[in-house]
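Course assignment 3, question 2. Fill in each field.
Student: A.L.
Task: Predict the tertiary structure for the chain below.
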Amino acid sequence: MLLLTTSHRPSPRTRTFLKELISVLPGSYKINRGHKTLLDLAIEAKKQGLNYVAIISDRRGNPGSITLYEVVEKELLRPSLNKISTLILKGVKLSRENPAAGRIYGATRLNVDPSNCISDDCFYVADLLIKIFSKVLILH
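Answer field:
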């Protein structure tokens, strides 16, 4: 389904955000980016049987955006990544910063309920989640 990683040299908050995303997104696989290029990430995603890659980037030491890519395999060539979308993040709050928050580990199902969407952006994100996580999705 989804390979998750960060941009090069992520901040500690971004690393923590990645860990929290991995715990709630079923079928996701985390990889430490290091010096890996987009081609390296595409090859790793194919090796793991994943069709999508998400790269979490920093902005001023905080998680700032998630760029989504689809892994495409051209005939007799290496896999490559086609950019689908960039989601801008604002006001990210980590679970450790909220005393009332509980942590979820090992989620096996994902629920997407677009019935409360009032903007096209919300519907777009819901459609992306449905496309990426169709195998483990509960629709309402």
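Instructor remarks: Residues 114 and 126 are 6 Å apart (CA to CA). DSSP finds three helices and seven strands in the chain.
Grade: pending
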